Amino acid sequence: MKNLFKYAASYWKAMIAIVLILVVQAYCDLSLPAYTSDIVNVGIQQGGIEDEVPRQIAIEEMEKLLLFVSEDDQQTVMDAYTEDNTSYKKEAYVLKDSVAEEENTMENLKDILQIPMMMTSGIESGSDTTKQMEDKLKEQMSQGMAQSMPQGADRTMPEGESQAESQAVSLDDMSMFDLLKMLPAEQRATMVEKIEEQMSEMPDTILDQASVSFCRSAYKDLGMDMDQTQIHYLLKTGGQMAALALLGMVASIMVAFLASRVGASAGRDLRSGVFHKVVGFSNNEFNHFSTASLITRSTNDIQQIQMLIVMLLRMVLYAPILAIGGVLQVMKTNVSMSWIIGLAVIIIAFVVLLLFLVVMPKFKVLQNLVDKLNLVTREILTGLPVIRAFSTEKHEEERFDDANRTLTKTNLFVNRAMTFMMPVMMLVMNGVSVLIVWTGAHGISDGQMQVGDMMAFIQYTMQIIMGFLMLCMISIMLPRAAVAADRVEEVLKSETMIHDPKQEKHFPEDGKGVLTFDHVSFRYPGADEDVLEDITFTAKPGETTAIIGSTGSGKSTLVNLIPRFYDVTSGDITLDGVDIREVKQQELREKLGYVPQKGVLFSGDIASNIMFGNSHGSDDEMIEAAEIAQATEFIDTKPEKYKSPISQGGSNVSGGQKQRLSIARAIAKHPQVFIFDDSFSALDYKTDVTLRRALAEKTSGSTVLIVAQRISTILHAEQIIVLDEGKVAGKGTHAELLKNCPVYREIAESQLSRKELEAALNEQTDGKEDQIHG
């Protein structure tokens, strides 16, 4: 898991930028529900009025309010307003700008005026309760006046009308506010206190709504256009929502761009790192990692890492920001329903943990099965001619189907687990929505919250759950990508056995290419026995040194030690007196022209393959190399000559043509040392003889090593090394070895006629007699 974050952490600058942009995006996304709530609560329900303290109020309305305000608070209220007799159709009080900007002062005014505004609105509504209060108050006042009237006072009244009746008529004409004005201040204050006690148990939401309703009525009473006010509020709030949504979209696009760029860059760097690492592998590392596995790690595994890095930057970083911000917004909106979010999070966490425990072990198996399928497919496609020749198509089809079915079953298991997650998450989300509506409806009914607040709470909850849902989606991808990252890291961290020296030496500038094996032994890593043991010989410039032996005697292993595909276990290999382990591999291989046992060509054309080791060489050099390698006879027959295309692996040329092009490639490099690892096996005898004759002229100043199975190829070599079970069984010329080396004679007898053997022995005898007579 740490490898994933390590790969992403190398792009920390881009990640910091992404986090900052994600904060902006989260701010936009988390602000939208609040604006939705404002549109519903303020824009629709409150008609665009969000004031809980009137900013403008008619003088007569202010007088009504002050009836329910204590004398001390009356002065506070009046100090907050100033008179305006020209701006409205009625004389009015206008809230001072300095007061409107002071939050504490506004809160104080709200506390003073909230209940008076509600009482005033209730009295002005003319409800049955207000009517009963008014009748009761008139009755009490009438009785009080009658008791306070002097005896005989009614005698002075007109006939048929008493003073009590006259007072009753005047009280009937009075409004509730007129009656309250007539009450003594102490009695009015007592009445207000009783009403406040009754209202103290009311939810704050109802008091706030009453204050807003009063403000709306006060503005309308002054002749203000309330429809225009509502439209203005809706347009302003809607415009802010649109701007935030646009900003969030821009932030989302930027995050997607940066995340994709980081993911692509990480994939590019990983592929480059794996490629450079693999290019530096010795044959031992190639034996540890199969070709199919290396291809899977370089493609499928890195693709998994790249996709997850993008998801990590787009979702995993965003999810906690969104979830934490959503929780904070929920705490502001309504704390009483926060338990619903906790319940949803617990259920989601349980589902994720369950899936993680079930699916995680399958991911490593899945990647190994992809390796196996790639291996089987590659083997079948590569060996198709052999499969057809032996009529084993049915067996290979069954082998492929077995690997394919196993991979399919594992994939189905993983995908089913992932598809199980989505319905569960949708069930949780919908269940939470229903629970919020159910609980919120009771809160709205009890006056504890508004419809817009419930809508905002649902949106915040969905955002929080979506944050965890994103984490759930990533949790399914994460194990597979973690396995892929470990597999890639295994390649990147693998120890290469062949290293350049810390203190490098250089070959002498006047070096000729003298190659010396000095008591060289070699053992494959992990093997119990040496493959080569105590090999000593010197290959000189201008001479051909041939290596021959039975199958498995170590011929190819010996020449593979020269370019350091393996390093010797003991002894030394020197070139011009310098140990090849003490110079850089590149400098060593610049001196060598290597033709492998199996000819390898690259996709391109004939020219690019011949000049592969000498890309700046001239056309004359290319043609000369092709002529020496006897490749012109088939190149000249092609319409495009040297521009003729070569398919991948050289599949569109024959084995002999492939070998000749490989030899031409080595010749065009002009090396000091030629290494031919059984490179003439696919050539006919005539071409072989002609090629070696031309090669002898070209390489007269170079050291030539030839590994051969056919004695006819090495008959005229100045030095022949005979290997038997990894040891030198003989050393000398063809004739000398026929006489002195039983192993060589046995090989010769199996390949040459009796006449050829006798001719070679006679040549050896004649040579000795010439030396004696001389």
Keywords for this entry:
single chain, 774 residues, alpha/beta, six-stranded mixed β-sheet, four-stranded antiparallel β-sheet, 30 helices, 15 strands, 65% helix, disordered C terminus
Helicity range = 55-70%
Described by strand count, sense and barrel closure, the largest sheet is: 6 strands, mixed
Strand order of the largest sheet: 9-12-13-6-14-15
Characterize the overall form. Answer: rod-shaped
Task: Report the end-to-end length measured between terminal Cα atoms.
Answer: 80 Å
Mean of pLDDT: 79
Q: Give the number of helices.
A: 30
| Low-confidence spans | 151-164, 767-774
Structural class given helices, strands, pairing? alpha/beta
Task: Tell me the radius of gyration.
Answer: 49 Å
Give the amount of beta strand, in percent: 5-15%
Count of individual beta strands? 15
Could you characterize the architecture of this molecule?
This protein has 774 residues and is an alpha/beta fold. It contains 30 helices and 15 strands. The protein has a six-stranded mixed β-sheet with strand order 9-12-13-6-14-15. Helix 15 (318-333) packs antiparallel against helix 19 (451-492) and helix 23 (619-628) packs across helix 25 (655-668). The longest helix is centred in the first third of the chain and has 54 residues, at 226-279. The protein is rod-shaped and about 160 Å long. The two termini are 80 Å apart. Residues 151-164 and 767-774 have low confidence and may be disordered.
